[in-house]
Structure formats: C-alpha cells, structure tokens
Amino acid sequence: MYARRAAQLLQELSSCEEGQLPPFNGDKFDQVIRECEEHSRQFQSLIRDKDIETKNEDHYGSFIHHLSIIRNKRCLMAYMYKRAEVIQSYRWYVGRVLPREIQDKLNFSEQEYFKNYCSVIDSYMKDLDLDLTVDMVPPKDPCVRVRVLSEIGEVSLGDHAVSLTKDSFHFLRRTDAEPFISQGLMEEFVE
Amino acid sequence: MRRRGGRSASGLKERKKRDRMESWEEEGSGGGERERKTDVEAMREAWRREKAAPELLEFEGELVRRLREQIQLQEDGDEDDDQDLLSSLRHMDLDRALFLLKSYLRLRLSKIQAHLFFYASTSAQLLSPQEHLFCQRSLHATSRHLHRSLLSLLPPHYQSLSRQSTSSDHDDMLHPPHLDTFVFCKPNTHVGPLQLDDLGDDIVDLVVDDLYVLRYKSVTALVRTGRIDLI
C-alpha cells in the first residue's frame, strides 16, 4: 500500500538496460490498480456523511488516501510512459516487425500502440517522400561491403544485374544496399 | 566540364548539367549584413542549432524545400560516370547532405514526441504542416494507449491524462520543455551587456566571437533573431 509496490515496479524497469524492456509485469500492475481501488474505498468511507469543512483526523486520513492514489498514478504513468518511449525507439532501431522475444514482453495495448505509432511515422514519411529510418549515422563511404543474409535472387542495380544469393559478399553503392539492409535481408560487413 | 563518349550531343543536356552544378553551389538567401552561404552550409547551421536548443525552433521550410530540390536534381542527373573519383565524391557529398536533412527532421520529431501536448497547441509557424499532423496523430495514439491500459482502470476522478485528479486546478501532469539547460553559444554580432535573469543581478557582456556557456532561457530571443549561434 501507499505506493510501495508501484515503486518496485519502477525499480524493475530502471534496472533494465537502456533501450531494453523487461516483460510487462501484469501481476504487479494489477495489484497496484487494486490498491488504488482500496484507497478509493477508504477515502469514500472517511468522507461520507462528514462535513467537508471539519478538519478532524478523518479529514487528514482521507487526504492520505488521496495522495496515495496520486502517487500510485504517477508511478504507473511513469512505468507506462517509459515503456512507450522504448517501444517508439523500436520502430527506429529494430524496424516495422518486432522479433518474437520483444513481442512477448509487451502487453496487448502496447502491441497495438506499436502498430499505431508505426503507421503515424509511416504516414509522415510518406507525406515527405523521405525514408527517415535509413541514414541514421553520418555516411563514411559511398559504397559498402555487404553480406546477403537471405536469398534475394537476381537484382538489377543501375546498369548491371547482381545475383544476390545467400551468404554471398558484394560491394554495392550505399543507396542500393540501404533498402535491403533496413529490411534485414543484408548486413553491412565491417572489417 | 568535358564529357567523354558519344552520349547525346544535344546542347540541352550540356546546359542542364551546367545549371545543376550551379544550383548545387547556389547562394543561399542570406540576410543583409551576413555573408552569403550555400544551402548546404545553411542546413548544417540549422541542424546544429536544432541539436543544441532544448526547445523546438522554427521550421526552416524554405531551406528544406530548396535543399531537397537540389538533391533531387543531383540524383536525377547522375547517369554519367565520367571519372569514377569525381562521381564517387559527388555521391558522398550527396549522401552527407541527405544525412543532414534527415537528421534535422528526426531531431525535430523527437522533440515534438517528447512534449506532444505542448506542441499540439502551438502556432503553425513552429511546425511544418506534416509535423503538425504527426503531432496530432501521435498524441491520439499515445493518449488512447495510456487511457486504455491504465487510466480507465483507475478510480473515477483520477482518470485524466493531463490532471492528477479532478481537484487539480491546472494541467499539472503536463510540462513544457525545460529551458533552463545550459548551452554553448557564440555571438556573431555585437550584443553588449545581457541581463541573465529577471532580477537584474547578473549582467554579462557579450563580445563577438567569444565562447559563452549560458542558460538557454537567457539567450532565447537572441537565438531566434540569429544574433547568437549555438554550438
């Protein structure tokens, strides 16, 4: 009670590495919600049939319950909001499709939020006709060495065709390779 | 610039290429007393300013539009690989300009994202029309998610996104961006004494091209009018 459990929830979140999430702790979350309901019940029983002006011990007791609810709300909001921020960063650093191990860490509403956020970003990029998720670091070379991760086949790049078979190495222009890299079909080979 | 080989000999292509080279180095529209600079340099400065400032600065719509046109021209006209060195240098230059542009837009997006409510209700000049749309849609998605997963489960009177409870008299859960952070800055014109806070206790004399570390709040007006540069 009195926001102790909510603080534990936040501690769990802060002990995780930057950019990573622990699995959504539905149990503890529900416990905090139930605590809020309990505080609310106590609050109602303390102020019922009482004159709002009398500053007796019941008045201050009810105030404590009110403050506990506020504190719980603040902790829960911090928990959800921080998770939402990390989920947003997934779109930029992981991509449109989340791997299974990340999906399992999100609750249903968070998975929906990820999809909605992706579509908000995509419609912004479509309005501008620019893909903002590539070129995240300043480019060092106009050409990159890449290794093909999954079979792509014959691709026509510029004036010649390249056969992109699995595990083959190529030296391509950055602009040609970017779409494949961002989809995860190729990776940049750094010596 | 000599062209090798027997590509189309029409004078039109020659002229187009000349125009392209010129427009790439086209003089940007500078102010009266400031020296004129290229659009890429202007973009670099706008990017640096946006990176250093804790709040969102005015959207450089004209500059972005011009830069995009020039990048498009360069990309379209890049079929001829005359000399590999030159063409790869041009590629690199193009890539770097594109990176500047994208990074500028990404910086702004992250600032908007951090203070959705605040920027949703600001004047239209600060945000581009697309950013405005982004802000509203993102706000909608975020508030829907928070409401569904948390706020609707709390006791009544505590379900607001912007107020702690119905007994709050203002939006105490929302905060505008913090303008108190320190920034490195360098005046580029003579500014003279600057009052650092409202009490009038601290006065700093700003000399041209000297480096200062000040709170952003004190120099906001100067940054907006361009008399001081953020590093």
Structure description:
Chain A: Its main location: nucleus. Chain A: Keywords: DNA replication, Nucleus. Chain A: One of its GO terms (cellular component) is GINS complex. The complex is a heterodimer of chains A (191) and B (231). Chain A contains 6 helices and 5 strands. With 191 residues, chain A is an alpha+beta fold. In chain A, the strands form 2 sheets. A 3-stranded antiparallel beta sheet of chain A has the order 4-1-5, covered by helices on one side. A two-stranded antiparallel ribbon of chain A has the order 2-3. In chain A, a hairpin with a 2-residue loop joins strand 2 (153-157) and strand 3. The mean pLDDT of chain A is 84. Chain B contains 7 helices and 5 strands. In chain B, helix 2 (39-52) crosses helix 3 (61-76). Chain B has 2 domains: 2-114, Methane Monooxygenase Hydroxylase, Chain G, domain 1 (Up-down Bundle); 179-231, Ribosomal Protein L9, domain 1 (3-Layer(aba) Sandwich), CATH 3.40.5.60. In chain B, the strands form 2 sheets. A 3-stranded antiparallel beta sheet of chain B has the order 4-1-5. A two-stranded antiparallel ribbon of chain B has the order 2-3. Chain B has 231 residues and is mainly alpha-helical. Chains A and B meet through helix 2, helix 3 and helix 5 of A and helix 4 and helix 6 of B.
